[in-house]
Specification:
The complex is a heterodimer of chains A (357) and B (367). With 357 residues, chain A is an alpha+beta fold. Chain A contains nine helices and 13 strands. In chain A, helix 1 packs parallel to helix 4 and helix 3 packs parallel to helix 4. Classes of the chains: A alpha+beta (357), B alpha/beta (367). Chain B: Belongs to the HypD family.
Chain lengths: 357, 367
């Protein structure tokens, strides 16, 4: 596995001339392709992997595998528009997202891949910014981008650029985190305020101002998960509540574990700006996407220690117990409203739609 | 959240609920006219907390639900044209027409865009002079002034490629229609606060006189709703129907005169068909003669539509308060948000959608 030097030692500045754009030839596998990779992408990622560029990355077998650990393998594609938004970009999102997908299985991420689909006409400077964000995020997370691929499609066939990241990691022996492991009596914890990413994207995409600048919460969560595991906490289920938000994650846990989930709506941390924006648009904060939060179902006695571990992580500020697992209504997520009544909380059918009035 | 959390305070809410229950000597039937209120009632569980004192009957105040099928089909036909950019608020996109919805039109290549303001559609028209830009003008008195302003703005900018498909509706004639139904069980109305913010309260006094029912202007947060319910129950117990304003922080008796002037200038009252209910006299607005050149209905001749409503859909009875959503035989089985028979199961303000989303603990659902 290649070692990554810090970004300030990387071989930027990039040799990108202002106004240069991606042309179809950048995806043709010839000189232009090689230049794009060598002059734009690899410097942004912290240099070529040790041992040079090959058709596949080589990964040393970690000791945890030999000790009974298992490989975790995940992939995700990022098609977000706009490419840049308050607090982040499609680049760091793609790195954080796949690291988090691995972490939600209890895996320690080893390496990422990066597939780029570029639209003809994209400014190379834009690509360089995205690649730099990926490199920085990967470096901060301590997870290298070890292999990749670049394709170019014609104008109108992509929204500037798309990113696919895949990642592998190792789940240490004895760690069993899975969607079906929630048990009645368990406690549901969310690692911080919800809804910031979705509203930040919406505000940027639609040019809406909400009086407060909301930033994405995009962050890597694998260190927080490692902290929970090393503290000996019995983590039953982990989810990152991305698309579909907290409601989707909790309804999936209810369905997979065949238990009921009770959500104390008053305990869910919703920032004022998120609540205001959602009220204005007729959206439910519970359905809004997050990119740097996790939901943990833990054994009842582990709630306080888990909160302490999360609170010690920069991405875990504002962690709170928001609910519990019950056998009363298997398969359903039920909210306890602020007034003390009950309601079913469901996933939205598709995209949430802003209402008329 | 400041200025909003105050109106969801659980301790105050509990106190008001107890007051209402202590006041009510029997179960009173109240109709909340507005779909936004329906969802707030169901979402917060206000109806279950007041069981025994108040039965809520859900009214026709969801603009998405009552937009007639012909109008939906017309929108689909216009939106399908290659030279058209069709702009709409988001929640119209999933409303089923006779065959498909605006999402399907978009998937088939139509240029259908979600906007957050009708002025966004005007801007799109200015930016796309080679296209015809059509805005779907749907809503009650709440949204009508802004839509009227969009037409004014388009004329001021000299845009010849902007038009509006207008299907606006008015609340007071709907209350009249509900009260005239021989099956009506409504004993009092919670009038929609947002509507009265624009129109004031003058239209409601004559309805109180005519039908002998209390009408209380009511807001949307839990405490706002409870305040409206409390005043309604007090009036009913006293046997003294009257018009009250339980939402004074937003509603003035005279409403918003500027908005009313724009409405009076751009629109004129007309008879309007309501989906599932039928035609209600003087219940709609259309562009007045002076503004008729912005009427998309005229600009795009769409006459030979074959309208096909599902015979199994009983949304009309739901909208008139004659049927509870979960008492419909199709509820949750043949009719779900994934495959809706009617708009009340689709709209974010629809009563059937509210019951499906929030009430599956208490009501049967085959889905």
């Amino acid at each position: 596995m290649p070692e990554i030097s810090p970004p300030d030692q990387w071989s930027c500045p990039l040799p990108v001339r202002a106004g240069e754009r991606v042309v179809l030839g950048h995806g043709g596998g010839g000189v232009l392709s090689a230049e794009l990779i060598e002059q734009v992408i690899l410097p942004a990622f912290g240099g070529a992997p040790a041992g040079g560029l090959r058709d596949s990355a080589l990964v040393d077998v970690p000791a945890a595998l030999a000790d009974g650990g298992r490989l975790a393998f995940s992939t995700d594609s990022y098609v977000v528009a706009p490419l840049f938004f308050p607090g982040g970009s499609i680049g760091d999102l793609a790195v954080h997202g796949t690291i988090n997908d691995l972490a939600m299985s209890g895996a320690l991420p080893l390496m990422l891949s990066c597939g780029l689909i570029l639209e003809e006409g994209l400014e190379i400077d834009t690509l360089a910014r995205v690649a730099r964000d990926m490199g920085r995020a990967a470096h901060a997370a301590g997870v290298p981008i070890g292999t990749g691929d670049t394709k170019v499609v014609g104008q109108g066939h992509a929204d500037g650029l798309y990113v696919n990241t895949a990642g592998i990691g190792v789940v240490p022996a004895g760690v069993e985190i899975g969607p079906a492991r929630a048990r009645p009596g368990d406690v549901v914890i969310v690692s911080g305020p919800i809804g910031e990413h979705g509203v930040a994207i919406l505000s940027q995409r639609e040019g809406l101002e909400f009086g407060t600048t909301l930033r994405t919460d995009s962050a890597s969560l694998h260190r927080m998960v490692a902290g929970l595991l090393s503290a000996g906490i019995d983590v039953r289920v982990l989810r990152d509540p991305t698309r579909g938000g907290l409601a989707a994650s909790l309804t999936e846990i209810a369905a997979d574990s065949r238990v009921g989930v009770v959500l104390d709506e008053a305990a869910v941390p919703v920032p004022d700006a998120v609540a205001a924006a959602c009220g204005f648009l007729g959206l439910d904060p519970l359905h809004v996407a997050n990119e740097g939060k996790l939901v943990a179902v833990v054994a009842p006695d582990d709630a306080d220690p888990a909160l302490a571990v999360m609170g010690a992580d920069p991405a875990g500020r504002g962690a709170a117990v928001v609910g519990s697992i019950t056998d009363a209504h298997p398969g359903l997520l039920v909210g306890r409203t602020r007034l003390g009544a009950r309601r079913v909380i469901d996933r939205p059918l598709g995209e949430q739609l802003p209402r008329i009035c | 959240m400041r200025f909003l959390d105050e109106f969801a305070d659980p301790v105050l809410a509990r106190r008001m609920i107890e007051q209402i229950k202590a006041t009510a000597t029997r179960t009173w039937t109240l109709m909340e006219v507005c779909g936004g209120q329906t969802h707030s009632i169901i979402r917060n569980g206000v109806d279950t907390l007041l069981a025994g004192a108040v039965e809520f009957i859900h009214g026709p105040g969801c603009p998405v639900c009552v937009t007639p099928l012909e109008m939906i089909d017309r929108s689909l036909e216009i939106a399908s044209r290659p030279d058209v950019v069709f702009c709409s608020f988001g929640d119209m996109l999933r409303v089923p027409g006779s065959g498909r919805d605006l999402f399907h039109v978009r998937a088939d290549g139509g240029d259908v865009r979600v906007v957050y303001s009708p002025l966004d559609a005007v801007r799109i028209a200015a930016d796309n002079p080679a296209k015809q830009v059509v805005f779907f003008g749907v809503g009650f008195e709440t949204t009508a002034p802004a839509n009227a302003m969009a037409v004014v703005a388009a004329r001021e900018r000299g845009l010849r490629n902007f038009s509006m498909l207008v299907s606006h509706v008015r609340v007071p004639p709907a209350i009249t229609a509900v009260m005239r139904s021989p099956r009506c069980r409504v004993e009092g109305f919670l009038a929609a606060g947002h509507v009265c913010t624009v129109m004031g309260t003058a239209e409601y006094g004559p309805l109180v006189e005519r039908f002998g029912v209390p009408i209380v202007v009511t807001g949307f947060e839990p405490l706002d709703l409870l305040a409206g319910v409390r005043q309604s129950v007090e009036l009913l117990e006293a046997g003294a129907p009257a018009l009250r304003n339980a939402y004074p922080r937003a509603v003035a008796a005279e409403g918003n005169p500027v908005a009313q002037r724009v409405l009076a200038d751009v629109f004129e009252v007309c008879d309007r068909k309501w989906r599932g209910i039928g035609e209600i006299p003087a219940s709609g607005w259309r562009l007045s003669g002076e503004w008729a050149d912005f009427d998309a209905g005229r600009r795009f001749a769409v006459d030979d539509l074959e309208v096909r409503e599902s015979p199994d859909c009983r949304a009309g009875e739901v909208l008139q308060g004659l049927l509870k959503p979960h008492h419909c035989p199709a509820f949750g089985s043949r009719c779900t948000p994934r495959s809706p028979l009617g708009a009340t199961m689709v709209s974010s303000e629809g009563a059937c959608a509210a019951y499906y989303a929030f009430r599956r603990l208490e009501v049967p659902s085959g889905a």
